[in-house]
Amino acid sequence: MVGNDIVDLHEAQLASNWERPRFLNKLFTESEQRYIQDAKNPFQMVWRLWSMKEASYKLYTQQYPRRFYDPKGFECTFQNNSGTVKFKGFQSYVETKETSNYIISEARLHIQKWSSKVVKFKTVDQQDQSEELKTRLLNYVGSAYQLQKSELDIPTLNNGKEQFHISLTHHGCYGAFAIG
């Protein structure tokens, strides 16, 4: 199983107002807010923590299929590019990569090798981006596989013999897929 999330930093700069009153209190624990306050770049720290939470949420919903909204319930800790996210009795191991253009996090149940493949889109239309990401994934794994989604929109790859958990993400000009 795998979860991933990408944040286009340019898009986040344009579309979000993370400094507005109560924004941080709604999404982040006190210890996470200290990470943000102490960071050299608080803006990037906000989106790093958010991507860690989102990647872990996607992993959690693969193991416990249900939809809900509780970002503050997913608590992040990290050192350098590695970290953990805990939610109740659940724990994920998260690796994060930061560039000047995006932040991407990948969550797993155990520490494993990175598998996310990042895509820079040619279009800004979200539907076109979604289709391009799926096409790139299927080109990567080969024509024997089909992309399927559960009733909760949790994606898997299936070739008739085996099924793999995957994670898809896109934001702004960037997307990524990861295979479990």
Could you walk me through the main structural features you see in this protein, from its secondary elements to its overall organization?
- With about 180 residues, the protein is an alpha+beta fold.
- It folds into two domains: about 5-110, Alpha-Beta Complex (Ribosomal Protein L22, Chain A), CATH 3.90.470; about 120-180, no CATH class.
- Helices cover about 35% and strands about 35% of the residues.
- The protein has five helices and ten strands, in the order βααααβββββαββββ.
- It has helices spanning about 10-15, 25, 30-40, 40-65, 125-140; strands at about 5-10, 75-80, 80-85, 90-100, 100-110, 115-120, 145-150, 155-160, 165-170, 175-180.
- The strands form two sheets. The protein has a five-stranded antiparallel beta sheet with strand order 1-5-4-3-2. Strands 6-10-9-8-7 form a five-stranded antiparallel beta sheet, sandwiched between helices.
- A hairpin with a 4-residue loop joins strand 8 (about 155-160) and strand 9.
- The N and C termini lie close together (about 5 Å).
- The model has no long low-confidence stretch (mean pLDDT about 95).
Summarize the structure.
By secondary structure, the chain is of the alpha+beta class. The protein has 5 helices and 10 strands.
Element layout with pairings:
Elements: E1 3-8, H1 9-15, H2 23-27, H3 30-38, H4 42-63, E2 75-79, E3 82-87, E4 90-98, E5 102-108, E6 117-120, H5 126-141, E7 146-149, E8 155-158, E9 163-171, E10 174-179
Antiparallel strand pairs: 1-5, 2-3, 3-4, 4-5, 6-10, 7-8, 8-9, 9-10
